[in-house]
Specification:
Chain lengths: 107, 168
């Protein structure tokens, strides 16, 4: 899959949450908080997505700290670049939408 | 006093959603799933609606169970390739999948297992038909049933793929 395709909402929020290292549950909480409760990542979906994102090299698991069994993840440089592109794309979508709806007041 | 009960019941593989609905109805009626066996479900008395129950096909994966537990879910048990989880409803909504892609991936996983077992039965069935045992028809029957199940799962997948053309 080419890397310039649109991200899913889940992928987008997972990457956003990982600007700072987080474990799985942290990502779920962060996503819910950022989207004001609109987007809830389910655990199975998140687990699959984390594995895929690691395979793609967009995020990476951090070596576990002593006494902590929860795995933490962080965004890689590659992941950050994908995120920056996606924000640009989304901005274009939102701008175009607003403009078209503004001009479209005749209907 | 703790009260428990066991219910013997079975579901077709393509009815896993119905199975989940039934387990949640049991929880609403005050019976929380405690463990699972071959076509048997063991329940323990709970407050009505205290738990939500979810199940999924997931090959054995210790890291996954750990991950689920970290998010506040309890691991109830496993039967063959199916894992069962529950979570207190007071701790928030509980779902395993939150987008169409992961639901499709789950159906794919089920489809792969069905094709593998179905294919094996077909081969063994053909081999046995010409062998001395004369029991090949049993395997051929199994293969037919598994292929039917595969068709049902595929139908569900197609419905989701259609929806994905418009939504995530």
């Amino acid at each position: 899959m080419p890397d310039f395709l649109a991200l899913t909402e889940s992928t987008y929020y997972i990457l956003l949450s990982l600007l700072k290292p987080q474990h799985g549950y942290g990502i779920m909480q962060k996503t819910e908080e950022m989207s004001h409760g609109r987007v809830r990542l389910a655990a199975g979906t998140l687990y699959g997505a984390l594995n895929t994102l690691c395979d793609k090299g967009w995020i990476l698991p951090l070596p576990g700290e002593d006494g902590s069994r929860r795995k933490e993840y962080k965004l890689t440089e590659k992941g950050k670049a994908v995120l920056i592109n996606e924000v640009k794309r989304l901005k274009e979508l939102a701008d175009n939408g607003e403009r078209a709806l503004g001009e479209g007041s005749t209907w | 006093m703790v009260s428990r009960k066991t219910i013997r019941k079975w579901f077709f593989i393509w009815d896993f959603e119905k199975e989940e609905v039934w387990l949640n109805e049991m929880a609403l009626n005050g019976w929380a799933l405690e463990s699972v066996g071959l076509c048997s479900y063991h329940f323990i008395k709970c407050e009505p609606g205290e738990y939500s129950v979810r199940l999924e096909m997931h090959p054995y994966d210790e890291a996954y169970i750990q991950f689920m537990q970290d998010t506040g879910a309890e691991y109830v048990g496993r039967m063959a390739m199916w894992v069962y989880f529950r979570k207190k409803t007071a701790d928030g909504p509980f779902d395993l999948f939150s987008d169409i892609d992961s639901r499709i991936a789950h159906l794919d996983k089920i489809g792969k297992v069905l094709s593998a077992i179905g294919g094996a039965n077909l081969l063994i069935g053909i081999a046995n038909t010409f062998g001395p045992a004369r029991l090949g028809w049993v395997n051929l029957l199994c293969a037919t049933l598994l292929m039917y199940a595969l068709g049902r799962i595929h139908g569900k997948k197609e419905a989701l793929e259609k929806e994905r053309l418009l939504h995530e």
